[in-house]
Amino acid sequence: MAEGGSGYHPERPLILQSDRSVLLEVNHPEFEAARDFLSRIAELERSPEYVHTYRISSLSLWNAAAAGLGVDEVLRGLERYSKFPLPENVRVDVRETMARYGRLKLLREAGRLLLEADDPLLLDELLGQARVKEQLGARVDPRRVEVPEAARGFLKQALLRSGFPVVDLAGHRPGERLDLRLRSSTRSGRPFALRPYQEAAADAFWAGGGPQGGSGVVVLPCGAGKTMVGLAVMERAQARTLVLCTHTTAVRQWIQEILDKTTLPPEAVGEYTADRKAIRPVTVATYSILTERRQGDYPHFALFDAQDWGLIIYDEVHLLPAPLFRLTAGLQARRRLGLTATLVREDGREDDVFSLIGPKRFDLPWKELERQGWIATAECVEIRVPVERAWRERYALAEPREQFRLASENPLKADLAQQLVEEHVARGDRVLVIGAYVGQVDEVARRLGIPALTGRTAQRRRERLFDDFRQGRLPALAVSRVASFSVDLPEASVAIELSGVFGSRQEEAQRLGRILRPKRDGRSARFYALVSHETVEQEFAARRQRFLAEQGYRYRILRAEAAGAGEEADGPVPPVTPAGEREPLPRLLPFPGGGRAGGGAGERRPRGEPR
After folding, report:
1. Beta partners for 141?
2. Over the stretch 96-107, which tens digit does the pLDDT of each residue have?
């Protein structure tokens, strides 16, 4: 369609409005295609049953530009799916916003780091801003100005906040060489090869080893093998590497994968955690040890200068602690790879990830990988749980924050969780019961006679419990937030969410991710969210589900009866079929309205694990 096309097209699925918001019809035949297109250029804000609302932001457009999407391709896509002609102001905004990406470049010439603008007037304008000028040195000519090496990251932050993201082409230090190759078979003798999309992700980040690559974020679903992308980049870098992880279990999983799938010997790989502090050519550390403070100082920050690192990998980069942003600003001469299932940060610092780690280099929709068979098919079910009268009276008189906790710890959830676990275990499923509150997790574990794994669980016992679960010696496990991120439990097929951390979208995505590894017998995965009916928890649950809605997951909504008895929703429960199809469990009734895929707005996230 030619630019500026006119006319009303009622057969198309979306409406683009002049404030850059986009309304998308959920029940439209082209919903999935339009959703996949919008996920590349916009952010999902609300997702009730029938119409999803997206927002085209400057950051989402710059990420699209960095990933190679051109402005004409963006506008053609919007025209392709829009019922009405594109508002002219949005057309202009999209062109001008995307055109800003690339107007500023960081270059290296004769050993000097330079900021170059495509127009002297633009450079004049930026030099008039104090937060930008303080990061710059002497002006070289009308279009270029020197940049102190230590200011490289801070300048990128300041320029992004001024509305002009800089393309960093100044290159990276190669780091001390480290010979490393991926194996064609693992140490245990199993064939090993990267999947096509893992190769594509590593290539997109590496960009031929030139200055266009070497920094940025790869976004892939949980269970899709982000660690393998990290190993592929390590092979391309051939340099000493520092890997940063969320917790000790993740550190040891990384070390296991490195030793299993690369040619590195054990003495070349070190663990840097609260338990061990070995610095080796490849060192794997936790965020928590690096952000440990003593008398106002961070003693372990010296790890970043302990070796001539050629590559730093940030696992689960959406969880990168705030103190490490400041440190990362000074690491711009080193290659930086961020790995994550979602760029969503509940603290709103996505712009710092963009400027300091790098823009999004590769992304694949979750449902596309599901269609290709690389992650398990998953069904999401929200179950509305009634609240008994005495508990409801406490809830009615409580303060808002306490109301959320009371709704989250509704005692009837334990009854339902017990029923679900017993029935799924009887079918041969391996079940994770996940809660945000340690007391709730302990109580459910006690009732079910299964172990509880929380932040108080010693690391050695954690590893033993995870291993028992993987090997099938333990069919169910009750876990707190410590198991929400970077824990590899490939045979888990059912997750039961007792409670969540307010409206955390990233945590909901990670919890679903625990059960997305493809199962050997082909069975599908099922994710249950237990939500107290007619309480504030329903609103927060809708917010948590928003990112998964953007990825194409829809929540079927059922209701549980107060006494745990009632009619069966769809008759008796059949055994699992070879294809993994399942009927709803008994005593769960369809909820009026059918289903939903997320919804809600942003929120503040509390720190620490609730007790």
Report:
1. 144
2. 999 999 999 999
